[in-house]
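Tutorial sheet, problem 5. The two components below are modelled jointly, 226 residues in total.
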Amino acid sequence: MHQGLRRLSAVIMHLATFTWRPDVTNDDVVAVIEALSSLPDQIPELLSYSFGPDLGLREGNADFAVAAVLESPQTLPAYLDHPEHVRILSEFIAPSMATRQAVQIELPDEAAS
Amino acid sequence: MHQGLRRLSAVIMHLATFTWRPDVTNDDVVAVIEALSSLPDQIPELLSYSFGPDLGLREGNADFAVAAVLESPQTLPAYLDHPEHVRILSEFIAPSMATRQAVQIELPDEAAS
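Model answer (structure tokens):
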């Protein structure tokens, strides 16, 4: 499903997984969630936006994840570099973050709807 | 969107981000992609399944990601512990993998459709 030529019009998913510093509190995480909740209304390029704490179903997991679906690779900056997203990263996420892994992948056509 | 009580019926997303070892080739990654492509037909609990190499849009990204949507936390083992998934992890992914971060998050209700 991802072996085709990369089309400029492809829908993409941005995924980011995070681990928190040992001193991060539940209130810190709630503040991150509340801040991120404001983004979909401000960034129309977000086709879907999901995020939250790890559910604790498996040992060894990271602590938090974000999955953002965007209408094209060209619209990634409209999310990642949006001033409010940059502010949330700087004020809420960076102070709590131990590690982060981000990836952008192409989604199959049927994910565009 | 994630502050509610955790419902046992909640749709969840499993996210995993990977970095590859330096000696991993494009053919190795194609083999991973082809192997993972066989899973949706074998695991009906997968509501959606997206994966692929990082598109190279941002510096510092990891190399590969998987996003699997499942109908409930209870169905996570139907995917993660499925014998074919376990075989692909062991034969195709583990030999190429440098690091992995996995998270499961709850999705809002509208993601269930």
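Marking note: The interface with chain B takes residues 1-3, 6, 12-13, 15-17, 19, 30, 33-34, 37, 48, 50-55, 57-58, 60-65, 67, 73, 76, 80, 99, 101-108, 111 of chain A (CB under 8 Å). Full credit if you identified this.
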